[in-house]
Amino acid sequence: MDREGKRWQPFPNKLTVWLAVKPGACFGCLAPVLASLKSLHQERGGELALVVLVVGERHLAWESQVPQAAYLVNVSPQAFARVFGTFALPFLAVCNRKGLLVRAETLPPSGGTVCNLEHYFLE
Amino acid sequence: MAFCAFTLAATLPLASFSWFCGQTACASATLSLPKSACASPPWVVGADTLPVRARDGGSLWTVPPLSDLQLAVVDAQSGRPVASGWIEVVDAPPPTLRQNWVQKNQWLSWKAALPLRVRLGAEGYKTKEFTWAQASMTVVLEREQVLTWRLAGGGPGEACVAPWAELGTFAPFSAKALCVQAEKEGILKIPAPAGAAVVVVRSPGCEPHVVRGTPPQNYLVPCAPGVTLTVHVQDAQKEDVANAKVTVTARVPGMGNFPYESACTTAASGVCTVKGLAEGKVKVRVAAQGKAAWEQELVIPQGEPITVTLQPGWDLRGRVLAFDGEAVVEASVRGHGAEAKTSPSGEFLLEGLPWELVTVAAQAKGFVPATVAVEPGTQQVILRLQRGTRLEWPVVGDLWEGVFAEAALVENGETLQVFAGSVTEKPATVWWEGLPPGTYRVEVRVPGFTPLATEARISEAGGVVRLPEARLDAGLSFWGRVVAKASGQGVVGARVRAEPGDPAEFRLPHEVIHAGQTLTRADGTFTLTGLQKRRYRLVVEAPNFAPLLLSGLEPEPGGADLGTLELSHGFFLRVHVVDAQLHPRPWAPVEVGEGKAYEYEPLFRGVANEKGTVEFPHVPPGRWRLVVTAPGCEKEQWAEGEEGEEKAVTVSCRHPRVRGTVLVGGVPVAGGEVVFAPPHVPPRGPVVMVHRPGEKPRFFGLNATGMAAPVTDEGTFVLEPAQAGTWQVRWVLGQRSTSPLSVFVPEEGESTVVLDFPGGALCGRVKDENGAGLPEVAVEVMRASGEVLAGGETDSTGYFHLAGMVAGALGVQARREGYAPGRVQVVVPERGTVEVEIVLRPQARTGLKGKVVSPGAGVAGAPVVLCGSAARTVYANADGSFELFGLQPGQYQVCAKAYGGPVGCTSAVTLREQETRLVELSLEGQAWIREELDPTPDAALGLLSELSCPLAWLLPAPSWERGNLVWGPLLPGTYTLVTPSGLKRLVRAR
């Protein structure tokens, strides 16, 4: 809760799935990933946090593709690269409950990936 | 109103207390009054006494023991005492309500019984309500001026205002905004804070209007027509629908989640136009009687009407009942955008539902929320709510304002749901209502005391669970005196905050939010309690002084004496923001901070005026980071100053620009991206992302930022805006990258570069022991020093190709989960390709590897439970594979769940030392347990596998059919059912 009594949500102890995409990414190519994320989220909404990072300008089409209650966040390519060490997209990262990277679908050019990401969402 | 049944006025000499029953003065008496005089505890007021509630003293009402109280009232801007004002005790009857005061010395004094809820005010200041809990207190009042604005469009509307200085990383506009409705003729009387503010005016038919900076007096708020949305409403027979209500809601641009709404009602032609919308995405809802409501998020099409076809709807009647059959009153019921409250008999009506399966959710105070899926056309539904449990935690000590109480429902170490608690002051208790059964992690933070934490277990729904009494502990503390450096006099009302750790090191945002704080007393002294054994950073802030920052302080049990803390005036910093053409850039937000990795809030926050200038009059001596965050102008700059100095800094929004050509071995490339990465600097610790819907996320914990630009098919690129500095530049195509080149970008102007990456290339294959190509292997190319130059990933046949490699002796490393890393040395030529082959061997470890399949395909993310000699839960990878290593030899069983399919287990597996066993769990076929059992709450039932793997949490809630428990889906087999009484029954799933 913040100073005004509003909730803010850190997700410690949750499996976190980060899907980073380009704003104009083709949904068809990502359909299997999205479908599996949607079913994953429907079944286990309480156990995992799903965050879709749209890297670049806001793209409305994405808002209908993201499962309800998942988080859709727009980030600049720089901000994305700062955290994940890559500009190569799409990028799927899964952090375990301790914040360690357990899976990354693309490899960062520098070889170093950050996944110990504490994340807070304010409603 | 209560009346006096009796008065003592005639029988007693004039006494020092006046007694009030309800609103009636009923007696003048000394310390007690016969009980018969008042039905409920009367209020008492004496000379120099604030109203107090009498106590029940058997046959008498008695005056509680009074203490001498002292209060200092300080102006927030000047730090000086406020001359005069008024005070009133909340809930006291009107005749005793308000007492005026004049502050001649530094202290105002009264007698009263603590605690006391009071309202304090003074002319020209914002009224403050607080709980008076300590004998001597300092209250800081903020100045307030009333702005008179007028809506150009007249009509209704409202203005919402928030002080700029209070908005921050954790304080959005929506949380801080105070809204006032327009009076007649569109006059807005806005209570404006001193200094810069953000004001949002919402008026139907006019585009939302935002004013940033110092709000002007007598302002005519323009009514911009904005974008309009014309809606044509038809029914399924294409007939126009009149009297349909069209409501449009959207976010005010640039104000995060802050919403506005506009509406219209359709005419006989079925058409209406909603005016005053801002561009962007909106949510449109169309509702008409007898029709299913239509709701959609859309971008407003330019100039084109949208046609909405309303389908016939249906109305759902129902009742909300408790498990014991009692009607639940005032329950909130929702389904497909329709909302209703239950009547005293528990009944509700949801109108305008669509012809599809509708999920109806009900929630009520004291009950666990429930949902039910309802088939279209259903006339009547009954929702049964489980009575939640009330959890009480009595506390020895006083609970005042600022108490944070949270109970988190946890399962297997994961937080499922968080419930906010409430507080009763007398007797001091923290409580929660409507908690479902489960295990809770309970946390209570009381300002001035160390946090309380415990675990609570609720095994049955309903009733009250009382936790053992907790004692508030003042913990460790600091004490000291804050004085003005120039005069040596104590500073009253200075805010002293103790933040755990230091902004240069990782710290969680909530540690900073919950930082303990206090105000200095009239002589400048302070005691800050409730601290724990760790290092703190003390921040002392007072009006007209520069903040004082002291790091690395450790509190002590009796209070660490910090001695005299001297506040100086610091230096005067004037920041001038100019755009790329060097014209003033008005309304640019400017922050002044230390520039440390985990600095969640800057030291100062301001906004440039119409001339592009913002002033910070009291900046502590030293070097500070200025951050400008205006749209199109994001700039960082450092400023330095010494005590008493006046410093002017110009921040230019001019950015350098880089254009260039990309070659590999002298040949232009086609496509891809150039990536400008900072020389590799690892993050300071965990990266913290703080995000609010509608706003840009903020990252903390990073040391540097990167840039990227697309490369054309001709091999050229333009990077704008670029940032100055030295960068490691790579060409990235898909998942492959070249070795880096070092590029310097100057502070200003355009620079042209030719990025000629070396012509060496590396081609290779990663195989397993049997010679089969291994896909998805991470390949890294590195120098002998360990510096990673480039990277890539093998394709489905195990091949990789990396171009643009620097010549020389390099190491190539391949890594894949489950295999020991493989490494070879190669010498890359100036031009041409070197071939390499790497063989990866599986890692020999004690554990289980396997795959969850259903039917035939891997189940991504399936929960996999291990039980037997050790218990653990993991989640399957995207292809359904999983690994469980680090196990001791023993007997194990693995259970998993297929989403939308059954839960099942392997047979028992015996594992020996240094052995990796492969298991495959095929989740095909669905079987159900049918067992004679009385209905019972879901949480009370357990289901175990052969080796006691808990399965209940993987399964949907059980149901009952004609007295039989029906539970599944499971793989066919034998399981153990644990009944609420703890009895275990072997059951078969068929």
Describe this structure in words.
Chain A has 123 residues and is of the alpha/beta class. Chain A has a domain of 86 residues: Glutaredoxin. Chain A has 3 helices and 7 strands; from the N terminus they run E-E-H-E-H-E-H-E-E-E. In chain A, strands 4-3-2-5-6 form a 5-stranded mixed beta sheet. In chain B, the strands form 25 sheets. In chain B, strands 37, 40, 41, 44 and 45 form a 5-stranded mixed beta sheet that branches. In chain B, strands 62, 65, 67, 68 and 69 form a 5-stranded antiparallel beta sheet that branches. In chain B, a hairpin with a 5-residue loop joins strand 72 and strand 73. In chain B, 38% of the residues are buried. At the A-B interface, helix 1, helix 2, strand 4, helix 3 and strand 7 of A face helix 1, strand 39, helix 2, strand 62 and strand 63 of B. Strand 7 of chain A pairs parallel with strand 63 of chain B, so a sheet runs across the interface.
CATH superfamily of the largest domain in chain B: Carboxypeptidase-like, regulatory domain
Largest sheet of chain B: 5 strands, mixed
> Helix and strand string of chain A, N-terminal first?
EEHEHEHEEE
For the record, the CATH class of the domain at 12-97 in chain A is Alpha Beta
CA-CA gap between termini of chain A: 10 Å
Q: Spans of chain B with pLDDT under 50 lasting ≥5 residues?
A: 1-15
CATH topology annotation of the domain at 12-97 in chain A: Glutaredoxin
Outline:
The complex is a heterodimer of chains A (123) and B (990). With 123 residues, chain A is an alpha/beta fold.
Jot down its keywords.
heterodimer, A: 123 residues, alpha/beta, two-stranded antiparallel ribbon, 3 helices, 26% helix, disordered N terminus, B: 990 residues, mainly beta, Immunoglobulin-like, 5-stranded mixed sheet, 2 helices
